[in-house]
Design goal:
Chains A, B: It comes from Salmo trutta (Brown trout). Chains A, B: It is an enzyme of class 2 (transferase). The structure is a homodimer. Chain A has 14 helices and 14 strands. In chain A, strands 3-9-8-7-6-4-5 form a seven-stranded mixed β-sheet, with helices on both faces. Chain A has a four-stranded antiparallel β-sheet with strand order 10-11-14-13. Chain A is globular and about 75 Å long. At the A-B interface, helix 1, strand 2, helix 3, helix 5 and helix 6 of A face helix 1, strand 2, helix 3, helix 5 and helix 6 of B. Strand 2 of chain A pairs parallel with strand 12 of chain B, so a sheet runs across the interface.
Amino acid sequence: HTLWPDSCRYVSKAAAKTQMEFEYDGPSMKTEVPGPRSKELTKQLGEMQNVGAINFFCNYEESRGNYLVDVDGNRMLDYRHLLHPYWLSAFVNRPALGIMPPENFPEKLSESLLSVAPSGMSRVQTMACGSCSNENAYKAMFIWYRNKERGHNIPSDEDMSSCMINQSPGCPDLSILSFMGGFHGRTMGCLATTHSKAIHKLDVPSFDWPIAPFPKLKYPLEEFKRENAQEEARCLEEVEDLIVQWRQKGRPVAGIVIEPIQAEGGDNHATPDFFKKLRNIARKHGSAFHVDEVQTGGGATGKFWAHEHWGMDDPADIVSFSKKMLTGGFYHKDELQAYRIFNTWMGDPSKNLFLAEVLNVIRRENLLEEVTRSGKTLLQGLYQLQDQYPNMLSSARGQGTFCAIDIRDDATRNSIILKARDKGVLLGGCGERSIRFRPALVFKEYHVHMFLNVFSDVLAEHN
Amino acid sequence: HTLWPDSCRYVSKAAAKTQMEFEYDGPSMKTEVPGPRSKELTKQLGEMQNVGAINFFCNYEESRGNYLVDVDGNRMLDYRHLLHPYWLSAFVNRPALGIMPPENFPEKLSESLLSVAPSGMSRVQTMACGSCSNENAYKAMFIWYRNKERGHNIPSDEDMSSCMINQSPGCPDLSILSFMGGFHGRTMGCLATTHSKAIHKLDVPSFDWPIAPFPKLKYPLEEFKRENAQEEARCLEEVEDLIVQWRQKGRPVAGIVIEPIQAEGGDNHATPDFFKKLRNIARKHGSAFHVDEVQTGGGATGKFWAHEHWGMDDPADIVSFSKKMLTGGFYHKDELQAYRIFNTWMGDPSKNLFLAEVLNVIRRENLLEEVTRSGKTLLQGLYQLQDQYPNMLSSARGQGTFCAIDIRDDATRNSIILKARDKGVLLGGCGERSIRFRPALVFKEYHVHMFLNVFSDVLAEHN
């Protein structure tokens, strides 16, 4: 925890003085820029991210007033302070990660995000939020797809001129295939793939992209294997039909995006077999496969990534994340890398420091095992209550503590949520009539029992 | 500065213990939820933002383990921890502002963002980044426009069902008019209005939205008044033509978006007269007027908002910001408010605390006057160098320290930037062959002289 005392001391000392006391008296150059240390760090970071836009690595502790100091000790008068009106904010706050990352950035990135990279992925791009993560993941898929179509990555003059006025071929008529009930964010690209609630989409212009049905399975999954397999086959067939139709329409499917469990849409599960076959369909038709783990990533399903439950070596081309990961971003395969994925902040490095801490605690306290244990107890409790109140409850389901249960109707659901809150238990809804359970990773079995008692009381009052 | 020692002490103390030491032994309810204090704070915040999604205000200092404590002292077992895998991250880090803001949020919002609200605007929506700010501002304009078309804000059944599959009327064919050379971000909605560099847009599907020419003026503006007025009139005429054309196409212009100075596009200025007339055109055709101050806001032009140079009482319907403001977001008129503008984080409240500090320093040290003074010296220096090197330099221009100058060609520009860096001065380019100056607000006149000496040496070497 040495991080904290240090940065705090710096801040409070700094805050007590005015900026002028800190000011250097002029530039001072020791090496060419980027110097050897910056070059070494750029090489390190290059193993994890695209580094095409990086000028040099910055020593934010030594930088002050109007001067930036780089990791080779060069002190430069800064005439392009794009971000900070005032040193306080610059040095304790948001460096422009894409251009001048701090010295410890590669190290922190490997301790945090890369230490939990999904199978087959060694590269990660951080972003400020979940929507930006998905927007940029889509852009990476479009760019990858167009390069594949061209056979190289050099755009034509027509590409370059037509894109400036939003026309094809520069802005191509490509599409992302998404699923009814999915939620991938609220910015306009993401929103075109979001289909959980009308209210998210209403009045916002959209794209003509294909939307496939997500399997509507019966729970518990193991009790309805045959019917569920039929339903999944129906949806997969529809996916292939849509890919063919949209190719014929001149809007080829550059990528498929899906959640391992549709969260906002009502905690809809599908089987590993479904996801394996979907992955194969993407491969067969040359579409990228994007698994959106913004809701499911970070351990709540009992594995760090929900897609690990599928048991595949090569589960995806892109995996996006946010929320529990504290920073947004996406992992991607080497070939989906694009220098052109860029913005000013590219996330916030302080979040990586937090995340490294969080991951340490998850490992030290075996929280994923804890989640699996608590989740099992929770789900068993829900099964019991569902047997006890068959008119009120149905379809208990879950992975780890990422659980949900359906309530008779929307009104009953809302009344149950309010009654539980009056008894000191905070629950949330999802889908049309589900209650979802999203406890923290430190939720222990005795918390589960405490909850089940309250929930049971509330249900008894409703019966 | 009491903020810092306190929050630091909290963090380091917390970090030294395990989470279990903090855990409460069960829920404890004191009032209904939301209780009187939450209701009072919701009312206060309602003056500044839409509060439709807020459940209660949270006391993050008292919340620990699996328990959330609200500002009325109710302690609730939290079964919907959407954001935090572990208390450390939750309490020192990112509350879900849209649902459970911290107690001091209304106060901090009025001390920070609302204390510098543009003329005619008393409401603000925070967002995590510049792109999200613009995306959500566009959505607010689309929703406002559709409500105006409907005559009320109740969607039809057809609206609700068609939007789920990305079709009109639910997802209407509305457009945003933007300007060639503009830059408004890189997510897909923003990107459809960005036209500064092809490389930003290439390979990403876009919308068929109208793009007007931005005036190409001669500098210094006061020496070419007549020609500049003609050029501005030409562009305004084109704007009206496009609005009419797109209405006829069935893609009405819901909003016009423009930067007060086109920054990425090459520091292109226009006169107050141009912006006044453009504002009137927007009003005449029923389009919202969105001023994007992501680059220009925060004081660099010598006024807090660049659009204040226009001298209008009612300059805009929406003003978006980010960068120097430390948080993203947008100010808007009452009628452009929408409950449906929402995401998980809605920005990061720690940024408001920083911003309040920054604003105090700006006021205490009269930094806007400083900027005006330094900017005048800088621009005069650039005029002199331009007279001295007429083959190399032209079109020196600026407001405050937000200045730029054109270089003979792209190669010379890049060589000048590198040579200046070797002498310890960091410069940046914009547009096709401009160098832009973006010093911090604390850039004093002696920094300007230091810079002009280095710049003069570099130019002498190039001549």
